[in-house]
């Protein structure tokens, strides 16, 4: 029993559980996070949120943030993968996104923005890549405003376009380097 506790203590020293959110970020579930989200909802700037929330998935591997983001977006856009997921169900999951890069390699190194775009295209989505260095802050904000507004639905019942950002986590004082995330809501005031 003591040996088991020592082993668990040693493992705990070499790992972490729920790292604290850096002060540069606002927790979605906090009072401030809820207020920001409520403001975005009130201003019609959270159009993609509900479709993405219905498809929310936690990445199965530390380097699968790109795959998990793509799975959420593809399923939220109701794109039929044209092949079975499990049983009789056709549904995107991370393990189905191997057309461009071996998943064992993705587990080790993740995917690049260009690989994300190739995966989206070879699985039936249109995808436009805009590298950050070629986009002004004003142009980026305009795209965020459009993609979170009802205009992103193009008259349909669901969003047909999602904005995904690929950024360096260290800029936000977070652990790790590259990360992918869909933009689901925006509060212009903050």
UniProtKB/TrEMBL annotation:
One of its GO terms (biological process) is phytochelatin biosynthetic process. It is an enzyme of class 2 (transferase). The keyword Nuclease does not apply. SUPFAM superfamilies: Cysteine proteinases. Its EC number is 2.3.2.15. GO terms for molecular function: glutathione gamma-glutamylcysteinyltransferase activity; metal ion binding. It comes from the Eukaryota. The keyword Transferase applies. Residues 11-190 form the Peptidase C83 domain. Keywords: Cadmium, Metal-binding, Transferase. Transmembrane segments: none annotated. PANTHER family: GLUTATHIONE GAMMA-GLUTAMYLCYSTEINYLTRANSFERASE. This is glutathione gamma-glutamylcysteinyltransferase.
């Amino acid at each position: 029993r003591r040996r088991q506790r020592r082993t668990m203590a040693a493992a705990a020293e070499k790992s972490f559980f729920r790292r604290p959110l850096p002060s540069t970020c606002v927790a979605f579930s906090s009072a401030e996070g809820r207020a920001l989200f409520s403001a975005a909802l009130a201003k019609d700037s959270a159009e993609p949120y509900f479709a993405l929330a219905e498809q929310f998935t936690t990445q199965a591997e530390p380097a699968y943030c790109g795959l998990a983001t793509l799975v959420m977006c593809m399923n939220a856009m109701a794109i039929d993968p044209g092949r079975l997921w499990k049983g009789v169900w056709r549904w995107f999951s991370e393990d189905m996104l191997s057309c461009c890069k071996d998943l064992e390699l993705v587990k080790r190194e993740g995917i690049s923005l260009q690989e994300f775009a190739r995966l989206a295209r070879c699985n039936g989505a249109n995808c436009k890549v805009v590298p950050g260095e070629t986009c002004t802050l004003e142009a980026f904000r305009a795209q965020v405003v459009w993609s979170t507004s009802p205009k992103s639905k193009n008259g349909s019942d669901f969003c047909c376009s999602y904005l995904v950002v690929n950024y360096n986590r260290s800029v936000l004082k977070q652990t790790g380097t590259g990360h992918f995330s869909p933009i689901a809501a925006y509060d212009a005031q903050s």
